[in-house]
Design a protein that fits this description.
There is one protein chain. The chain contains two helices and 38 strands. The chain is mainly beta. Strand 21 and strand 22 form a beta hairpin. The two termini are about 45 Å apart.
Amino acid sequence: MTRTRLWAYLALVLLATGVNPGTALGRASVTTLTDDGAWSWFSDPRAIFDGSELVTGWITKDGVIETASYDIATDESHVATLEPVWEDDDHDHPAMLKLSDGRYAAFYCWHAVALTFPTYKVSDQPGDIETWSERQIVPKNASGGAGATYANPLPVPGQRDRYHLFWRGADWKPGTSTGTYDPVTGEWTWSDYWKLIHVSTGRPYVKYADDNGERIGLAFTDGHPDATNNNVYYAEIRADERGESFYLADGTYLKEYGVVPLMPCESDTVFNHEADPVKTGDNAWIWDVAFGTDGYPVVAYTTFPSLTVHQYHWARFNGTEWEDATLVYDAGGSVADTTIHPKQHFYSGGIALDPRDPRTVYLSKEHNHWGWDIEQWKTADGGASWSVVSITKSDPIDNLRPVVPRNGPAGYDVVLWMRGIYDHYDNDGWGGRSAYNYNTSIMMWTDVQLADVEQPTHSITSLASYPNPFRERTAISFSLAEPGEADVRIYDAGGRRVRSVMEAERLAPGPHTVSWDGRDDGGRRVASGVYFVRADVGGRAVVERVTLLR
C-alpha cells in the first residue's frame, strides 16, 4: 500500500472513531475552518486579522477559490466563493489585503500559464467577504511564457493607498508593479512592470515581510532546489530622500529601487551552501521572513543534508552579523509521495514565523507514525533554548504548511495549517477523478494569552544541566509548577533519540534532578558532540543544548 493510500485509509479510521487531531492545551482550541482547502507558501498574506476577525482564503481540491472570515471573539464564520471555476492547483489561492476604506482586496494568479496576468477582486462592502467586484487584471508582465504566479501585495513604505504587488513574472524572475487605489472611486492604476531580482540562471523564490508599512524585507534563493544549489539572501526596501531604495540589514545603502534589479551578490548572505555541506547539505529553500521586536530581520529556511533529511533553521540579524540556530536537525523528508512525483523531494512540512514577534515559530515535522505534526516553539534568548508546545501529537494524518496571520490581535497566539493528504500541487489528470494529489482541510489553533485573564501555568518553569560542557555525567535539573507526568529524553544533533532518562513518571510540584552519564539506552558510551535535553510535561516541553567532551 502506498503512503497516500495508507493515509486515506487512516483518515477514514480517525473519522469513524472520532479522534481529535488537535491537542487543546489550557485555553487553546482547534477549529476546522474548512474541510476542503489548500495553499502554496509563496503567496502572502494568506491570512490577516481585522480586529478580532480573521480573513483568509484557499483553493479547493476541485479548483474553487474561496475566501472566509472567522471572528475569534464570537465564533461566527462565513465562506464566500471568489472564483467558482479555476485551475485546481494550490498555487492559485488568494493573498489578502485590507484597504484604507475597510474593503478587502484578494490577489491571485494562475500557475505558470502562458499569457496570464495577476488578477484581483475588491469586496463590495467594508469588512465583508460575502460579495466581490468583477475580476480585474494587473495588465503588466515580463516577456516570456511563464505567465504570472505567486501574488504578494504589500504597502509601499511610508505611503497611503499605494501597494507593491510582487509576483513571479513570465520570465520566471520575481517582478513587481505598483498599484494606486482610489478609495472614492474604487479604481486602481498600475505602474509599469519591473524586474525585482535578477539571476543569470534559475528562478529565485522570495518571501516578503511588511514592517507595518515602514519597509519591506526580502528573503530569497538563487532558484528552485531541484535545479540549483541555493544560498539564502536578504535585503530590504526602505523609503528615503530618494523615494525608495535597497538596503542591507545593517542599514547599508545599496541602490535606488525601481531602476536596476537587485542581484544576489549585492545582498546579505544568510546561508552559504558551500560553508558546511557535511552538516547541512549543499542546498536550501526559503520559508519565511519577519521583523523582530528589536527591528532586525529574522529568516526561516530549510537545508537538505539528504533528500530524506530536512533541517529547519532560524537565523536572526543581531545588528552586526547573522546568527543561525538549527531548530530541528531532522524534520523528516518530503511530505509528497516522491515515488509518484520524484521532483518533489524538497517539500518540507513547513516553518512559519509570528510576524508580531518571530521569537515564536510554528513548524511541521514528521513523527514516528508516518505523519507530520505542528509544534509551537518560543525562545527568549536569541535561539539558544526553546520551549515547545505540541499543537497536534502523533496524528497519522499530515499537518503541513503553517501560517501565522498578519496583524494578529494582542492576547492571542494563532496559527493556521493544512491537514490531510498532500502529494503534489495540482489535481489535474492524476488518478482519474477518484483520487487527488492534495485533499486537505484548513485548521486553526488559538491560544488565549490575555494579560487580564488568569493564564494556565506552564508546567516546566526551568531546565538546566550542570556541568555543561561535561565529560562523564551532567545533572539535569528542572522545576514543575504543578504535578504532572514527565518525560526527559536525550537527542543527538540528527534528532535521533539517544537515551530516555525518565519515562512518564508522575512528579509533584517543585524541583527535580536526574542525571545523564553520556550513554545511550543500550549502555554504550556516545561520542563527543552536541546533544539536546528535552523535558516534556503535559504536552509542553523545554529544550536545552548540552555538550559532551570525551
